[in-house]
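Question (not urgent): is this output format expected?
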Amino acid sequence: MRTRLLLVVVLILAGGLVAALVREDVLPTVDGLPVVPAGADVHGVSMAEWSARHWQWTLGIPIATNPGQDVTGATCGEVQEAPVYFIPRNFPPCEVPAGWSIFIPIVGTECSTVEAPPYHGETPYDLRACAARDVDRYTGIIVRINGELVPEIADYRVASPPFSLILPERNVLGAPAGDAVAVADGYQVILALLPPGEHEIVVHVELDDGTVLPDKVLRLTVVP
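Got this back:
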């Protein structure tokens, strides 16, 4: 009897611990949208750091298998690591496993120590100024998720800390393979868990000279 009672107590405590861990990992959202609030950490990592990691992923894959060079979406899953799924910057249709958060790059740029001007810098200060100068051109940004407007999108602009790049042969920058340092600036959102099914994200961007860029449409399929 004592052994059985002890087992029940252990199971109850274990269940409570699991539930507590799950609750701790539940991400906050904005106004009923599946969007993590601007400035919030996601799985213990800041948005600025996630931005750096997304650029490392974007630039660290050779052209032949780089998801950002594939309009079909067939390579979306290349080198993805839980708990955050990176969407390529060209917005191909992607299948995303259920249970992952989703990083969506809205608009942005990076500058590095290996690129040619105007995207070149030698010091962290130069790199930050370079990236900020490019992103300052973007205005009139509107993001809708399944038809619902993301409010206060200006709050989602972040500058990354300086981060390292490991460029492969035949990389998308056209730079020699090897190490580099970069800084990124731009707008991005991270979606909390989306339910299985079809989802659509539409991004509208204008430039400060009055140019209206074509809307970008991202179609996601979340699969169980």
